[in-house]
Amino acid sequence: MKRYIDAAAVTASPALSRRRFLTVTTLGGAGFVVGCGQREQAPADAAEPTPAAAEAAPEPVSLETLNAFVRIGSDDTVTTVVKHLDKGQGVTTGLPSIVAEELDADWSQMRFEFAPADAEKYANLFFGVQGTGGSTAIANSWMQYRAAAAGARAMLVAAAAKRWSVPAAEITVAAGVVSHPSGQSARFGQLAADAASETPPDAPALKAPEDFKLLGTDLPRIDSAAKTDGSAQYTIDVDLPDMKVALVAHSPRFGGRVASFDATAAQAVEGVSEVIEVPTGVAVVADSFWSAGKGRDALKIEWDDRDAELRGSDEIMADYRELAAAPGVTASDGGDVDATLDNASQVVELTFETPFLAHATMEPMDCVVRLDESGCEIWTGSQLQTVDQQVAAAVAGVPMGQVRVNTLFAGGSFGRRAVPNSDYIGEAVAVARASQGSDPVKLIWTREDDFTSGHFRPMSLHVMRAGIDAAGQPVGWSHRIVTQSILSGTPFEGMISNGIDPSTVEGAANLPYAVKQLQVDVHTPRIGVPALWWRSVGHTQNGWVTEVMIDQLAHAANADPVDYRLGLLEAHPRHRGVLERAASAADWSGPAPEGRFRGVAVHESFSSFVAQVAEISIDSNKRLTVHRVVCAVDCGFAINPDIVRAQMEGGIGMGLGAFLREGVMFSEGQVLSNNYHLYRPLRISEMPEVEVHIVNSGEAPTGVGEPGLPPIAPAVTNAIFAATGQLITTLPLGDQLRAG
Amino acid sequence: MKVEFSVNGEPRTVDVPGDKPVLWVVREDLKLTASKFGCGIGQCGACTVLLDGNMTRSCGLPVSAVAGREITTLEGADDAVATAVRDAWRALDVVQCGYCQSGQMMSAIALLRSNPAPDDAAIDAAMSGNLCRCATYQRIRKAIHQAAGELGGAA
User: Fold this and answer.
1) A650 contacts B20? CB cut-off 8 A
2) A712-724 and A641-660 are packed helices; what angle lies between their axes, rounded to 10 degrees?
């Protein structure tokens, strides 16, 4: 029984058309085949509930499928089928809240479960494939889930109208109860079976936003309970009968291969069942993590480094500096900007350098695989289900329709679990396939595997020149970027347009400030280090350099940094809105508290707008403290303001950690920072007080997972400059204040 | 080797290599998976449990070292302090990805048992061994203050 709202029938929100940066067309153009309609469709109601959902919905007597997104139990629970991965951003609360609103359900009856991999039903409408990223989960689902829930509501009403022999128009629904003025009433669970056989309406009426009761309020997270009693299931927690645990020894250098290995000692370790070579290294399969680890330690492997990346990060940056001497591919044509700058009243020239960054998710990469006669079943925090399904099918040697993906909570991702080649998932399937046994296999990467095997946010070099006229107005802005393309060589390569990977120039080529001549060009050298999107992607770098540069122009023009920006943002009211709100909440026009200094930044990413004012002090030992961050965000309609605040807090904390200390350093092709003692994210003692203000622009909802991050590094950089006159142009900060 | 110890108030016996860390014994052999693997070297705190009531990183602690002793994991943390911590964590929606939070809560429970009214500096000192990549730190601080208040500490 296939009864779901056709995604194509759902009206596109303004955000949708604007954000269609990944499309079926471009993916198809890159030779990427989704495979919709070419395989057996597992009906949604055949999917096993995830352990978390089972926990949330004890012993449902029966569960009626009203459409692909809404199921109603005879126990009165409403289960929202969540097509996106929840890696902490709160989508397992956000999507059910959208459903609850249009369904007029009571929040307490809402449950969720992760959707199976099924691109036909569950594609990200901005991507064309099933996947989560680019802060799109709510934005792409907004109209789709509203329509699904409104359709389900109409089906409940139609069922009640038939049962009571009354006109549907006279029926009302509130807090999970369907009622008629005659006194008849029924709970959802009592109507669900009849409702499921009603015909879904083509274009169900949606509520006017002013009628929202739940959306826009701080509904509590559905996942809080399971995540505070230990019952939430992550991949690492999956336990199947006779399951084995595998660890894989990888080449210490990217691109290295196994030349030969001696498994004698490893095989002698108690609990080790197999040692097998797979394309990515040598796998040790054992009865437990501990045995597998001891077995791996006992392996003797000779590596073939002929194709390996042998440079260190310093050497790669030195090569980038050489590349920057010549123009790259033009992303924004500023005309003869050099001539303009020659005639400018003042010119600011700055070179910025950023390091590779690790995602450093608290849960290292992991995946459980079971191969049997029915195909391949995987359990993982899948962020690109369609791609993972395709890779697993290819590695397992089965049709894509025989790969079942069980998406579980991910212990963080920040982009790491959306890998175009599904690296660790493919590896897990390869181990299971190579294994002589038929037992399921859980692949676990240790922290060292995670830190040394990539993928990383690319390092970058930015050579910038900008000039102002006698009135202080910017007349020319030249920005040359050297960084890796994330898309190159992946199934998403079709998104590269005119030689430009959009992720390399986002936030730079679309600089919002009124600059007469904007020149942006980019070099994307191919190097042997696997690159990947990292929370806010190109904006992590471009947001930093552009917001430091504009601050330096304000300084050169002897202007207030907020006023200067506002004067150049007349065409960008949403930038202005958040900047004005942050400045006023931080009392920017008043003096900073004694001994404190402030810096500001504003940046748009993923169609959301964020401004931050950082308040810092630097003590006599040149120790930096970031005391307070005032943040204003315009993400359109905030469906759950508390989750918006949480994402701003998190983005600020993660971005501040990266600013202070993070950087993956290589020497002779080997990663040195292999665990948390050498790669050190922010700790609680460094977390500033964060105050979040939500600016409601009345626009459709856009994402908040990433946009909180880009402004913090420039805001703190600008505050340090205000405090000391020292301008930080190389990240991380490290010891530069003491050295400077 | 056979090791007898107590987990969440119940006597348990496991027969595993003596150097197998307590984290992996509780996770793999006793099927208690709240305590998480994060780094394996005691740097992230995701594996935090209580050993005889004291905050302990379990990822590097050999099971042979806990013979005859008492381990508490989040699954078994249900006294007044643990309940206050759990309630505060839920009331403030501290969690994001949630992976580190078992360790965070065990550290918070240990802190509140020894210091019923910690100030921010005491919280930062006690919680600095617990990484949260989602940076839920501001809410962790608030939740500990709130739990302390519930327990009667002058937070």
Assistant:
1) no
2) 50
Q: Are strands B48-51 and B70-72 parallel, antiparallel or unpaired?
A: antiparallel
User: Using an 8 Å Cβ cutoff, are A339 and A347 in contact?
Assistant: no
Give the three-class secondary structure for A519.
strand
| Whole-number pLDDT of residue B153 | 72
Q: Rounded to an integer, what distance in angstroms lies between the CA atom of residue A613 and that of residue A169? A: 52
Q: Do B98 and A239 touch (CB under 8 A)?
A: no
Query: Of chain A residues 206-225, which have a CB less than 8 A from chain B?
Result: 220-221, 223-225
Residues A265-294: what's their mean pLDDT? Answer: 97
Q: Does A241 touch chain B (CB under 8 A)?
A: no
State the distance between the two ends of chain A, measured CA to CA, in whole angstroms: 69
Q: How far is B97 from chain A (nearest CA, A)?
A: 3
| Residues near A701 by beta carbon (within 8 Å), at least 6 away in sequence | A15, A138, A139, A142, A635, A636, A637, A638, A639
Partner residue facing B99 (CB), from A412, A646, A681: A412
* DSSP per residue, A214-238: STTS-PPPTTHHHHHTT---BGGG-
Q: Is pLDDT at B101 greater than 90 in this prediction? A: yes
Q: How far is A227 from chain B (nearest CA, A)?
A: 5
pLDDT exceeds 90 at position A70: yes
Q: Enumerate the H helices of A232-335 as residue ranges.
A: 264-267, 289-297, 313-323
The answer to whether the peptide bond before residue A732 is cis (omega within 30 degrees of 0) is: yes
Residue A353, Cβ neighbours under 10 Å: how many? 17
3-state secondary structure of A523: strand
Which residue is closest to B99 within chain A, CA to CA?
A: A411
Contact (CB<8Å) B38/A684: no
The answer to whether the Cβ–Cβ distance between B128 and A685 falls below 8 Å is yes
Please spell the DSSP secondary structure of A9-73, one letter per residue.
Answer: GSPPPHHHHHT--S-HHHHHHTT----TTSSPPPPGGGSPPPHHHHHHS-S-S-EEESSSSEEEE
Q: Which two tokens stand for residue B36?
A: 């998480």
Q: Are A636 and A626 within 8 A, CB to CB?
A: no
With beta carbons under 8 A apart, name residues in chain B contacting A651: 135
Residue A127's closest CA among A81, A83, A90, A91?
A83
Helix (H) or strand (E) holding A81: strand A78-82
Q: Determine, for residues A228 and B31 on separate chains, whether the beta-carbon distance falls below 8 Å.
A: no
CB atoms closer than 10 angstroms to residue A192: 28
Measured in residues, chain A has a length of 740
Task: Kindly state the percentage of chain A with pLDDT values over 90.
Answer: 89
* Residue B8 DSSP label: T
The reported pLDDT for the residue numbered A454 is: 82
CA terminus-to-terminus distance, chain B: 46
Cβ atoms of residues A713 and A723 within 8 Å: no
Peptide bond into A455 cis (omega under 30): yes
For chain B, state the CA radius of gyration.
15
Q: Which residue in the set A270, A409, A687 is minimally distant from B135, CB to CB?
A: A687
Beta-carbon pairs below 8 A across chains A and B = 181
